[in-house]
Amino acid sequence: MRIGVFICHCGSNIAGTVDCPSVAATALTYPDVVFSTDTMYACSEPGQDAIIQAVKEKNLDGVVVASCTPRMHEQTFRRAVERAGLNRYMFEMANIREHVSWIGKTKDLNTNKAAELVRMAVEKLRRNRPLFAKRFETVKRVLVIGGGVAGIQAALDCADGGQEVVLVEREQSIGGKMAKLDKTFPTVDCSSCVLGPKMVDIAQHPNITLYTCSEVESVGGYVGNFQVTIRKKATYVDWSKCTGCGLCVEKCPSRKHPDTFNEGLCTAPSINIPFPQAIPKKAAINAASCIMLTKGKCGVCAKVCPVKCIDFEQKDELVTVDVGAVVVATGYDLFDWHKYPQYGEGRYKDVITSMQYERLLSASGPTGGHIKRPSDGKEPKNVVFIQCVGSRDRSVNRPYCSGFCCMYTAKQAILTKDHVPDSQSFVFYMDIRSPGKMYDEFTRRAMEEYGAQYVRGRVSMIYPQDDKLIVRGADTLAGTQVEVPADLVVLAVGAESARGAVQLGEKLRVAPDQYGFFVESHPKLKPVETNTAGVFLAGACQGPKDIPASVGQGSAAASKVLGLLSKKELESDPAVSRVNPGRCVGCGKCVQTCPFGAIKMIEDRFGNPKAEVIDTVCQGCGICTVTCPQGAIQLEHFTDNQILAEVNALCPPKMFANFE
Amino acid sequence: MHNIAYYPGCSGQGTSTEYDRSTRAICQALDIALTDVEDWSCCGSSPAHTVNHVLSAALSARNLAQVEAMGMTRVATPCPSCLSNLRTATHKMKDPDFQSKANALLDTPYRNTVDVQSVLQVLAEHVDPEYIKSKVVNPLTGIKIACYYGCIMNRPPALMQFDHHENPMAMDNLMAAIGAEVVPFPLKVECCGASFGIPRGDIVHKLSGKLLDAGRRLGADCFVTACPLCQMNLDLRQGQINDALHENFKIPIFYYTQLLGYALGLDRAELGFEKLCVDPRRALGKIKQPAQTR
Amino acid sequence: MQIFDLAAADHAFIAEVQARSHQDIKTCYQCGNCTAGCPYTFAYDYSVSQIMRLIQTGQKDAVLKSRSIWLCGSCQSCTTRCPNNIDVALIMDVCRHMAREAGYATERAVKVFADSFLNSVSRYGRAFELGLMTEYMARSGRIFTDVDLAPSALMRNKLPFKPHRIQGRDQVARIFERFRKGGAHA
Fold it and tell me: Nearest Cβ partner of B51 from C114, C156, C160?
């Protein structure tokens, strides 16, 4: 074999702490290495051209590049060797940047380690063989999980782009958090007026199938060919007949369970349509509080329904769909502020969340858009807003900034003055974070035009005194303690990952970060991709986001889906498992252990059971290869021989001493 | 029958003898055997930790070593300040370096084998409330009580590991169990002014005055407390507070053990109501006699 | 107002506060929660968060000469509610230790009271309330402290005239003796 080695300086990133020419010289002493050099930027156009030229001039049949992480440039160099006429798998990469130069400071040691990593790559490459990708067709349909504004945008863009869309929403209506908001910043335009038409578009688009009250049960398959099972939860109403007339809602005698759409500020009937603009506008029964379903008698709704669509016998239903791509847009949840016992843990009725305040402000809310405090229905005069409740706080394991609370608090302070002209708002803040178009101007307006009193400091405690709530905080700019006798306290609760996000991530093989937000493929360059091909992210499921950013990501994810599904065929990665039928005893352990269902049992021509790998399903994880008691399965491109060769390259004397 | 070492604390010999006596009386009535820590000494109280933490820990650890010498593993104290010092010593001496420094000051080293609790915690966690209820002969029906825990009975929570650090309920539950009406006192863990009564009385007047004001707004007939220092600031200094704040508070400040003993029908002489500076008779008069309630 | 030269920060002071408290001063982001909850703020010259800031900027003199560090009641409100899990009350304690060692006593009465208390303990093994009051009044010169309370307290036998001398008072005295000789730091 004739191997060429290229040691990249990466400017000073590597060359700063690694003697690259010395590594190149050492590499020339390794077996089969016939050419070795160092290069300023291997990934640049001249860098790649030099590799291609060397392959041709030196008649190389394998290439090692020692540079950055393969996640960054493996594809770049594979394409380069392919252009030079080699198979793309006749290439190996040694990571001497993240694994060496960025983490070690001593040049001698770094140089030595870099040379050893190159030796490993060379030893592996000596055992590589050309591999060839298979091609397969894709299903021209996309699953969007989550019907908030990000999911709505992604679904509409995909549908407008000509793809079929299946939109799955856990709640009874799409609309997500945005549907609950009264107004949006910084324009103070009506939230449901902006969102409503988009929700109607979802209902009416010929390419979109909508499942609400539904959750993703399981996901199988791979990019281009996912099989998804959706659980449609029983609503006890036949939606094919329900006209949304609302007669049942009006007559339901059980009206005592908390209205979740109104954030528990009021109660709701057990059969309900959550809000006037709901899509789909269909009634559903809350099984936990329905008298008929809990006690076996009542049935008022069934009696009054003009189209007889009530079905107390309805069961959950499983629906299976094939899709080529998935957009995850599951959004966020609000931080549970009860973790701050100093704010009363719910003992004080007039301490509410910002989302509850949105419902009080909303004309479709429980107070018809009049600000009335929960305890006694009085109009509040002194309204205190407390920011960073569950944001930037290590003590509650929420060290991150939720990003949008500063803005919605400014909006709520403005709206408070609009609703109650003789009111005074006090906003306790730590820093005002308003980096968006017209955002900072907006917070200034809250202070300058609407007279909101911004107080820089946290609030340490809230306690009742007569019919007021005493809010004791700090004014760190004045350098002292302050107290406000408040009529209403609004907690600007931060964002946390959506309930169930981690479990959904497991089904989709998308990793959550330590707070449950899904991890994107690259924080800058692949913001809506995940590390699972064909699964994309949109909106706050990836991290707290405001509406414009969520919509932007919805469109971005849609463009990725459209790009993916516009290809007639996709190539599968040939680095998959292979069964050696001669060694396989048909025990089936690999079938049980494969997390992707990529191995099936077949019979050979003598009727013996044998395992067989489904190339397109196999993800190349290697679990089967270590499970097989016979050593009958090998993972292409990562065979035992290849990996042991790398290990031997690193520590030959001991290995031989022990095993030979 | 629980057998627990008992650390009375210095104030129990002086300004809070009624707390010490009533604590002993109720424990006896509830089958909790208290064995006094032999020849106990001062835990260091607040002054010691303001001077040096090793000194403070050593003063506390001398007593904990005494408990070890008695072959016991649990000690209870009625006083939150003692509790805080003893627990802090135990906690800090988990660090071997700190432990050797503190032990270097002691004749007998402390091996850190003793668990320290308040008497209130023993009552709340080891005595069945139904058992207490069954022993009640004079239910406190008719009296409205504000339960005041003071700042260090439950804080910091990682150290004290008892009840709740913002809204403790142990005394509330106890008082409710014996028939009293408990008002939702919001300043349960606010500081009364601690040991500044002597050097900076003005501070105590302001902070304790605020507590009395909050209790009065809720219509409380009296306070109960579990802390000798809190009790002294609110009771002995109530006259000073009235003078300083131009107020006329007349709110008796009981130790919770006194009212518990009253409900259990214990000998009045053991409960020491006569030791209270603010006359408790009007508040006690609110309690309906059993005959009248039936 | 006092002008601070930030470039002249006393880094040894910062390091000593951190080492003696085992707290990372840098994690304080000046939200003011400690100041908001501190019942003693009204009596302070610098609020708790300002003390934290002065430590962060290495202003040793301002911290050790402040009244605030003497007036902290160790009520643990700051420690309990700090969003960065800083034991602020412990830091106040450490500053007080360092102020004592440096010979400062900006709130002299507070220091004299603590000294009188510990003298009493050192002498008898337990705190002798009447005795320590007497010493405090003598040393602070505030001879009329709480005289209004005396009838009330004495009438109820709340203040014994004799100290309880414990058997092991020598052991307690030796704790103080060894402490003074060793000058134990922690």
Answer: C114
> Do residues A270 and A402 both lie within one domain?
no
Q: Which two tokens stand for residue A55?
A: 């392959």
Beta-carbon pairs below 8 A across chains B and C: 190
Pick the residue from chain A with its C-alpha nearest to B186. Answer: A463
Query: The domain that contains B289 carries what CATH number?
Result: 3.40.50.11810
Between B165, B166, B186, which is nearest A464 by CB?
A: B186
Q: Torsion angle, CA of A22/A24/A29/A32, rounded to 10 degrees?
A: 170
Class for the domain spanning C6-101: mainly alpha
Q: What is the DSSP string of chain B?
A: -EEEEE---GGGGTTTHHHHHHHHHHHHHTTEEEEEPTT-----HHHHHHH-HHHHHHHHHHHHHHHHHTT-SEEEES-HHHHHHHHHHHHHTTSHHHHHHHHTT-SS---S--EEEEHHHHHHHHS-HHHHHHH-SS--TT-EEEEE--SSSS-SHHHH-SS-SSS--HHHHHHHHTTPEEP--TTTTS---GGGTTTTHHHHHHHHHHHHHHHHHTT-SEEEES-HHHHHHHTTTHHHHHHHHT------EEEHHHHHHHHTT--HHHH-GGG-SS--HHHHHTSPPHHHH-
CB of B156 less than 8 A from some CB of A? no
Cβ of A481 and C50 within 8 Å? no
Task: Choose the closest CB to B58 out of C42, C158, C175.
Answer: C175
pLDDT (tens digit per residue) in B178-198: 999 999 999 999 999 999 999
Number of structural domains chain A divides into: 5
Calculate what percentage of chain B has a pLDDT beyond 70.
98
The four Cα atoms A237, A243, A246, A248 give a dihedral, to 10 degrees, of -40
Specify the pLDDT at position C159.
Answer: 84
Whether B182 and B285 share a structural domain: yes
The total domain count for chain B is 2
Closest chain C C-alpha to A543 CA, distance in angstroms:
21
Q: What part of C 29-88 touches A (C-beta under 8 Å)? A: 29-38, 41-42, 46-47, 49-50, 77, 81-85
pTM for the structure as a whole: 0.91
Instruction: Write out the residue range of the structural domain in which residue B254 sits.
Output: 137-293
Least Cα distance to C93 among C74, C77, C107, C80 occurs for C74
Query: What pLDDT does residue A651 have?
Result: 81
Given A459, A480, A496, the domain boundary residue is A496
In this predicted complex, what is the ipTM? 0.94
- The string of pLDDT tens digits covering residues B77-115 is 999 999 999 999 999 999 999 999 999 999 999 999 999
Q: Which of A388, A459, A476 sits opposite C30 (nearest CB)?
A: A476
Question: What mean pLDDT value characterizes chain B?
Answer: 95
pLDDT, tens digit, for every residue of A565-621? 999 899 888 999 999 999 999 999 999 999 878 899 999 999 999 999 988 888 899
Q: In this model, does residue C110 exceed pLDDT 60?
A: yes
- pLDDT given for residue A74 in this prediction: 95
CB contact under 8 Å between C84 and A473, yes or no, is no
**Are residues B54 and C158, on separate chains, in Cβ contact within 8 Å?**
no
What letter does residue A29 receive in the DSSP assignment? T
Give φ, ψ of A393 to 5 degrees.
-140, 105
The size of the A-B interface in CB pairs under 8 A is: 19
Residues of chain C with CATH 1.10.1060.10: 6-101
Domain that holds residue A175: 141-233+316-331+498-566
The CATH number of residue B75's host domain is 1.20.1050.140
CA atoms within 13 A of residue C184's CA, in its CB half-sphere: 25
- Chain B: partners with 3+ C-beta pairs within 8 Å: A, C
Quick check: A394 and C83 CB within 8 A? yes
For C152, the closest chain B residue by CA position comes to B277
